[in-house]
């Protein structure tokens, strides 16, 4: 499942540069994660780096974008043109 950043985000700028898929960008008020690009770091790291670096634990699973591991793998392959 894609991740999302809660409104409690303090805009510390830790997550955006760590995202290997360039899925994180500053929104109108807080950072946002593009669910079309978020693979939970599958294919890059063992765990999502945005979750790991967030000092206030405001990165959580997005229930509106539930995905299986197979779906995340396919998304990763499409993002990097690996077939």
UniProtKB/TrEMBL annotation:
Gene3D superfamilies: 3.30.70.20. It comes from the Bacteria. It holds the Pfam family Fer4_7. InterPro entries: 4Fe4S_Fe-S-bd (IPR017896), 4Fe4S_Fe_S_CS (IPR017900), YfhL-like (IPR047927). Residues 1-29, 31-64 form the 4Fe-4S ferredoxin-type domain. Its cofactor is [4Fe-4S] cluster. The keyword 4Fe-4S applies. GO terms for molecular function: 4 iron, 4 sulfur cluster binding; metal ion binding. Keywords: 4Fe-4S, Electron transport, Iron, Iron-sulfur, Metal-binding, Transport. This is 4Fe-4S dicluster domain-containing protein. It comes from Thalassotalea euphylliae.
């Amino acid at each position: 499942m894609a991740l999302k950043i809660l409104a409690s985000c303090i805009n510390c700028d830790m997550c955006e540069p760590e995202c290997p898929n360039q899925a994180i960008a500053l929104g109108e008020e807080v950072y946002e994660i593009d669910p079309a690009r978020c693979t939970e770091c599958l294919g890059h790291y063992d765990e999502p780096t945005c979750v790991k670096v967030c000092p206030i634990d405001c990165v959580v699973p997005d229930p509106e974008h539930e995905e299986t591991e197979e779906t995340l793998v396919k998304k990763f392959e499409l993002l990097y043109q690996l077939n």
